[in-house]
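Bit of a strange request maybe. I'm writing a small parser for structure token strings and I need a real example to test against, not something I typed by hand. Could someone generate the tokens for this chain?
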Amino acid sequence: MATITFYQKPGCKTNARQKQMLEAAGHAVTAKSLLTEPWTDERLRGFFGSTPIASWFNPTAPRIKSGEIDPAAFDASAALAILVGDPLLIRRPLVEANGQRCAGFDREPVTSLLGGAADPDAESCSRPGPSPYYPDPDPAPESSSR
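Reply from user aminoacidic:
Good idea to test on real output. This should exercise your parser:
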């Protein structure tokens, strides 16, 4: 049994399901808010390891879905600055266990904690539509042809 620190977005059904999976595997999980944690560039960087910079971002974040932010356009320093400034952009959950850290639910140490078999849908967003708090942007107006 491991003791896991699990940084989540409070109220996120996907994070709740992921936390339950870890607990069902016999682990003690301490959940913390990803949004209110006092992140620094250095501390946050430790969760990303050698993963590509674009994978540090939450693809379902409203600012990314709207196209306002393009994760592929950032170098490491700029990415960390924007992620620390707007934690909704951070890929979640952030997991710390047995001296290892990761961002997301599809890599080590999570896969080992779950016995090597992660649920392929464990990272799928549980919210079926746009968030009432962060609505999707209006679609582009259709052009009319004459």
